Amino acid sequence: xxxxxxxxxxxxxAGAFYYLSNRHPAPAALxxxxxxxxxxxxxxxxxxxxxxxxxxxxxxxxxxxxxxxVVNVTSKAVAFDFFYGEVPEQGQGSGFVLDRQGRILTxxxxxxxxQQLEVTLSNRSKYAARVVGVDRAHDLxxxxxxxxxxxxxxxxxSKDLMVGQKVFAIGNPxxxxxxxxxxxxxxxxxxxxxxxFIDEAIQTDAAIxxxxxxxxxxxxxxxxxxxxxxxxxxxxQSSGVGFxxxxxTAKAVLNDLVTLGRVRRPAMGIRSLPIGPELAKRMGLAAxxxxxxxxxxxxxxxxxxxxxAGNQRAYIGNTPIMLGGDLIVAIDGDAVADxxxxxxxMNRHRAGDTVRVTIFRGKQKxxxxxxxxxxxxxx
Length: 379
Known about the structure:
The chain is an alpha+beta fold and 379 residues long.
């Protein structure tokens, strides 16, 4: 009996092993294969509408304020090739609206030689333009269009600009309309262009490229403080050294450009000699520095004001001069140490303005009112 139970148990165990080893589970449902991964994409979204910091908001405000006043100026001319065939030429620059009558300020070199001018506004409307007046010496020109609903730019003051001050340039570099760049005033210095001399030019590292010429240089309030005019570059593109004509230089000649078509360049009607401390001591002058009047233009502004030229012949090296004339030490309260100071002061005036000239006549200091004449009087 015992052996029978052992046999039955062995049979049961063998049957159970066979059953379990040959039992197959139900096949699982097939899932589509994802080649981009099986995890769900989860992105982080902003919790609130987009906002700008104070600096960004100022940039946006300046751009929106000034853009409607900035224009693209296209000049067209005809040149001739070696075989006297006509070759059309086209140039581009920028400018900005001065008033609702359609007067626009730009650079002289933008319109020089143009036989046809076209102005494109920020809304892409195009208008024919004509030249009203030019000032080649300062690379300035006023042109005019006839268009409705113009937005004039706001003219600022370039008298007390500071190196490090933030500035913006808006124009059409490489024909890319409505481009704004930002930088600082890098320096205030005099620069000479191919046909112009700009006293107290505004140097900036704001990117200025071909096509920016004539466009506005702006302060952080969106006021025009300069007219972008040239770059210092060996490759013809921005190298971080650009220059602008001070807006005060332009304001001094705008009335002449609009009413006369030219600038009545002011002149005192003198030929002068800058005096330093050493020369002043040798001459026995009453001041250490100034500008000595050695000759007066007959009938000129200085003669009309009663200023006096030298009457004693002397020599500086081999150069003959006349001593005994009035020594100019200031004009309108601004100290005068050399002829560059006089030129700088003249840039703020035009012919017909009256200035107060402070002189030493011998040992006597006195003020003389002088009404400026035109530069051509002196020539």
